[in-house]
Amino acid sequence: MERLGQAARAAATAMRRTATGPKNAALLAMAERLTDARAELLAANARDLARGRESGLDAALLERLALDDGRIDAMIEGLAQVAALPDPVGEIDGLRSRPSGIQVGQMRVPLGVIGIIYESRPNVTLEAASLCLKSGNACILRGGSEARESNAAIAACIRTGLLDAGLPEGAVQVVATTDRAAVGRLIAMPEYVDVIIPRGGKSLIERISREARVPVIKHLDGVCHVYLDATADPEKALAIAVNAKTHRYGTCNTMETLLVDAPVAEALLPRLAEAYAGHGVELRGCERTRTILPEATPATEEDWQAEYLAPVLAIRVVDGIDAAVAHIERYGSHHTDAIVTEHYGLARRFMAEVDSSSVMVNASTRFADGFEYGLGAEIGISTDKLHARGPVGLEGLTTRKYIVLGDGQVRR
Amino acid sequence: MERLGQAARAAATAMRRTATGPKNAALLAMAERLTDARAELLAANARDLARGRESGLDAALLERLALDDGRIDAMIEGLAQVAALPDPVGEIDGLRSRPSGIQVGQMRVPLGVIGIIYESRPNVTLEAASLCLKSGNACILRGGSEARESNAAIAACIRTGLLDAGLPEGAVQVVATTDRAAVGRLIAMPEYVDVIIPRGGKSLIERISREARVPVIKHLDGVCHVYLDATADPEKALAIAVNAKTHRYGTCNTMETLLVDAPVAEALLPRLAEAYAGHGVELRGCERTRTILPEATPATEEDWQAEYLAPVLAIRVVDGIDAAVAHIERYGSHHTDAIVTEHYGLARRFMAEVDSSSVMVNASTRFADGFEYGLGAEIGISTDKLHARGPVGLEGLTTRKYIVLGDGQVRR
């Protein structure tokens, strides 16, 4: 790992100086190499899958591990999309003259060396590499051992793509060893690694955050809420509450608790229950919910904290926006929360008072996503407050330094 | 500390919702209270000083601890200045429409609860409180035990100022205990504290960074360079090289190593040496420097890494910008580095290639400062790459969350 770290640090210095042209050329060269290597990649993936089946990996894990032509097409297309994104590096903001005569502004620059630790999905290898490369960083990628042959095949395409474009091999390094101690070393080399981004389940992220000696951009849980205010348009309320829960169950921006303002609970809850029943969603309600929907299971304290990632929904009847905001503050995970309302003042209050990475008015929580937000791509969703908050795109992989332009000025 | 943490968390929720008016009113009320309490504050400070002298504190520490009418005037004036700064909270950037019909933007919001740990200077208590308050945060302040009576007197003014304006007392809490274990607890309560800012010597900051369980915005050393390129205007080169070293010795943005391009070393070094001699600056030079300035002490490897904070300067003759940038990359602390040049391309290269929090062309490194940059105030200079880099003003005490405005949109 020391050796990888040194190579990454040296490559980061070179990448910082690399113009947009060669970076895009490398991304497109990787796409070409991947097109040529499709058969080898599928074969490597088949070997990973066979080994996974033998060692008894569960079906969900095997599904995430599997590549097919469609997924490889998406990987190739993704490279072209990242090449088409504007290069954030070198952008200068707010350059203004000061009374001393100097001009001061901020220039966007790469973070340096980014370590990414992820689980079974091999397409993350390419996605992470392309975003780090475009943003002028060097990266060290550590994927799951179950995907090692797929990752090695992808790494070969990345390496030749870099060399085709005249960029240093060290700009993207895929850790070959499956030794778990390698992760421990990677997250404890502040001299070589500027930031760690773990992608995966909560336990992986918690362990890495606890043990890391370099900054971590982390994505913990998404206990997301929709609050249906008394002034909500009933059709918007129904559409959003159903979409936020049922569009996909396993994603972090899926609603886990629905809060309903008391005056409209009797009108809305039966219609919602019918829609949820059509999707097979199990309902767990507070006492007031259960007087309207007796079929709901009684919700416990744990339900308000739960990230179900499953067709289960907690429902609570609340008295107005203060109770809704207080519930979100107490039980939420500060990921994404939405209000449905037609009241201007309440919309403004909800936006100001809810301290989450995404706060929405009259839209489904499922929109909390780098593509939907127009970032072009995302490397994850940060639940941290510092640096990057919410979906992290190319900009989140950069930082800003001050630049000062003078004509010989000295400080008096 | 638990109790302080809980009170701060509750106050942070209230402060997040507080408009600019009451925040400014509290700042101005504190200024009034301080004006009225001037005699008590001077008396409390005199007791701190007497105790400090008895316990044998050194002269520099006593100097930092001492308050007089001038320093109290500056504190009062500082409150008015912070009140006059624009409020960063609620500012919305980049709101744009997406193909789905939602509008997405970013809103600037407070970080939450900020813990600040500092040493002897009692005026930091008021400065830190005013910046955290204006940026909508709650703060817990832990000053040095040698300043405890001064800090208690200032805390009383802060508390009554908060109450005068109807803001919660918990918005600014000054830790009364001088128990060192309190610091250990403060930096390990992620449930109550969102970020720690240590202000003080390197050993304090290193210890806190090592032990903290919440994010730290840190300011480590300033090993700053000025590189005099062969194309530099000699008068600008002399003015900047002399100012960057001699304007003040103990500040982090003071130049510690001067790099001189070989073709101009013979012309510039004797003139520089004469100017430095006039200021009593001791020179330590590389071998090439010493062939021109035989009176310079031979520089060792340690000199290239030294943050002297004293009238001592290391000088190295280098071959062009590549050698200069390589030296800065290897030995610098990524704080502030400047080039003096009249060459357009070299100015651009230096700005792009030097990875420091401030990079300057034809200006003295001494300008790296929140006031000089127009931030209005600064709580410190960050040498971190994530979140805030360089001087940290009100904006560095905030973060941005995504806001989504819709009309009932759901994800397809």
Q: Can you tell me about this structure?
A:
- Two copies of one chain form a homodimer.
- Chain A has 412 residues and is of the alpha/beta class.
- The first copy, chain A, folds into two domains: 2-218 and 387-405, 3-Layer(aba) Sandwich (Aldehyde Dehydrogenase, Chain A, domain 1); 224-367, Aldehyde Dehydrogenase, Chain A, domain 2.
- Helices cover 44% and strands 21% of the residues of chain A.
- Chain A contains 15 helices and 16 strands.
- The first copy, chain A, has helices spanning 2-16, 20-36, 38-54, 59-65, 69-84, 123-134, 148-164, 181-186, 202-211, 234-246, 262-278, 287-292, 301-305, 320-331, 344-353, and strands at residues 92-97, 103-110, 113-118, 138-142, 172-174, 195-199, 224-228, 255-261, 282-285, 297-298, 312-318, 336-340, 358-363, 380-382, 390-392, 398-409.
- In chain A, the strands form four sheets. In chain A, strands 10-9-11-8-7-12-13 form a seven-stranded parallel β-sheet. In chain A, strands 5-4-3-6 form a four-stranded parallel β-sheet, sandwiched between helices. A three-stranded antiparallel β-sheet of chain A has the order 1-2-16, with no helix packed on it.
- In chain A, α12 (287-292) links the parallel β9 (282-285) and β10 (297-298).
- The mean pLDDT of chain A is 95.
- At the A-B interface, β2, α10, α15, β13 and β16 of A face β2, α10, α15, β13 and β16 of B.
- β16 (398-409) of chain A pairs parallel with β13 (358-363) of chain B, so a sheet runs across the interface.
- Chains A, B: Catalyzes the NADPH-dependent reduction of L-glutamate 5-phosphate into L-glutamate 5-semialdehyde and phosphate. The product spontaneously undergoes cyclization to form 1-pyrroline-5-carboxylate.
- Chains A, B: It catalyses: L-glutamate 5-semialdehyde + phosphate + NADP(+) = L-glutamyl 5-phosphate + NADPH + H(+).
- Chains A, B: Its EC number is 1.2.1.41.
- Chains A, B: It holds the Pfam family Aldedh.
- Chains A, B: Pathway: Amino-acid biosynthesis; L-proline biosynthesis; L-glutamate 5-semialdehyde from L-glutamate: step 2/2.
